[in-house]
Amino acid sequence: MAKRLFWSFFLVFLGGFSSLSWAEDALLEKAEALLKAGSYEEAALAYEAYLAQDYGRLEAHLGLGVALAKAGRLQEARFAFDQMTRLFPERYEGFFNLGQVLLLLGKPQEAAEALARAAELRPTEEAYLALAQALAQAGNAQGAAEALRKGLAPERSAAYRLALAQALYASGARSEAVPVLYALLNREPKVAEAWDLLALILAEEGLKGRALRELDRGLAQVEGKGRARLLLRKALLSPNPEPLLKEAYALDPGLWTAAYLLGRSRLEAKDPKGALPYLLSAYRTAPEPEVALALAGAYWALGDYQNAYRYAGEAGPAGRFLKAQAAHRLGRREEALALLEGLSTPEALSLRGVLLLELGRAEEAVAALGQAYQATPSPEVGANLGAALVALRRYGEAEVVLREVLLKAPRLSAAWYNLGLALKALDRQAEAERALRQAALLGSKEAEALLRR
Q1: In this structure, are residues 243 and 268 in contact, taking their beta carbons and an 8 Å threshold?
Q2: Average pLDDT for residues 46-71, to the nearest whole number?
Q3: CATH class of 150-252
Q4: Counting Cβ atoms within 10 Å, is residue 7 exposed (0-12), middle (13-18) or buried (19+)?
Q5: Dihedral Cα 187, 190, 193, 199, nearest 10 deg
Q6: What distance in Å separates the CA atoms of residue 432 and residue 437, rounded to the nearest whole number?
Q7: Where exactly are the transmembrane stretches of this chain (predicted)?
Q8: Separation between Cα atoms, residue 422 and residue 343, nearest integer Å
Q9: Could you tell me the sign of the dihedral formed by the alpha carbons of 309, 312, 314, 318, in that order?
Q10: Domain 255-332 homologous superfamily, CATH
């Protein structure tokens, strides 16, 4: 919005000065022609040359600022517009454009100060919208709402009224946003964003049924991509969202949230292959961490560990554990171990223990697997702990853990195999042989090889 206001204002401003005798001033005429032709660097030089002769010409300062901004030289544009405000402190143009450039520079608080002055000098819709944008970016949602409320007038557009409702909602005054939304929709019933926000507020107030009814009213008015947005909101409030999500996605394939939710529902239904097209579509539109994580999960379920590793990395901190799992499957044990550093969930401790055991660091493996087993005594973790204890020749402790595991999971071949090793080391040959035979029956190749010796 800031860019659009900035450039459209520049064109309006030049039109306002068309009656000046610029043809008599060859240098200024040249600068204007270069600017209109898109030769921004040359235009800036021409305006600078003119100002060196006459520093008090308003339109030359404005032209220089715009040329610099369009050339991407924002710091220099900031200086040009700042000079304008100092030379012409009662002119709206300098403060408004200075505020826009400061917004583009990521200085919203300074932008808000300039735009507040612009709104005082000329209370236009664009000034209040830009001021609200600056205040919102500065983290002052309440200030943004107050600015828009102050600038509200009968002639304000639907876009302005929607911005006011959104600002009120963002500031926590959602009940105050409701009458603004109803007034807007009574005038402009095809504004999808207004129906969407109204339904969201009603649902958050515990009025889910009313929210759904309002969405149906909106769906009777809105078409195209706006309709897709309302279908998405209805899906989020419905017990059976999938048909609504599919309809929304068909209307607007760029609606990444619908594609993401469809993919996630396929994942939850144990259909990773069906999830992939939706998730890839969502990721192409919006490579958000949650989408990347879902993609990594789909590839993991399909056994594509290279892509699971890639997208888990794109997911940032939330994907670290899955990235470590994929690195382990790809044979990158040291990297997987480094990725697990600082993670203390039972799953992370369990994987850390397995990696340490595979790297021959049995003492550390026992420490990690012991913590994991204490937190979540699953048979798989217990079997790995038993294997680590066997590796350390702590056969008595291994037997205790493995027998406990086998009470819960009597068909776990790894537990039978490691129990056989522990019993063999304790010189209980008959028991060891029975344990190894059971492991072999359950598919342990290692147990079969040991029995053949």
Answers
A1: no
A2: 94
A3: mainly alpha
A4: middle
A5: 80
A6: 9
A7: none
A8: 31
A9: negative
A10: Tetratricopeptide repeat domain (1.25.40.10)
Residue pair 307/280 in contact (Cβ under 8 Å)? The answer is no
Can you give the C-alpha Rg of the chain in angstroms?
33
Residue type present at position 176: E
For the chain, where do the domains classified as CATH 1.25.40.10 start and end? 1-139, 150-252, 255-332
Mind listing the pLDDT tens digit for each residue in 330-365?
999 999 999 999 999 999 999 999 999 999 999 999
Task: Decide: 248 and 261 in contact? Cβ < 8 Å.
Answer: no
The reported pTM is 0.78
Give the tens place of pLDDT for each residue, 87-137.
999 999 999 999 999 999 999 999 999 999 999 999 999 999 999 999 999
Cα distance between residue 43 and residue 50, in whole Å: 11
Token pair 């964003």 in the structure block, residue: 193
- pLDDT at residue 6 greater than cutoff 80: no
Task: Give the model confidence (pLDDT) of 208-248 as tens digits.
Answer: 999 999 999 999 999 999 999 999 999 999 999 999 999 99
Cα distances (angstroms) measured from residue 262 to each of 110, 111, 255, 259, 386: 43, 41, 11, 5, 42
**Side chain identity, residue 135:** L
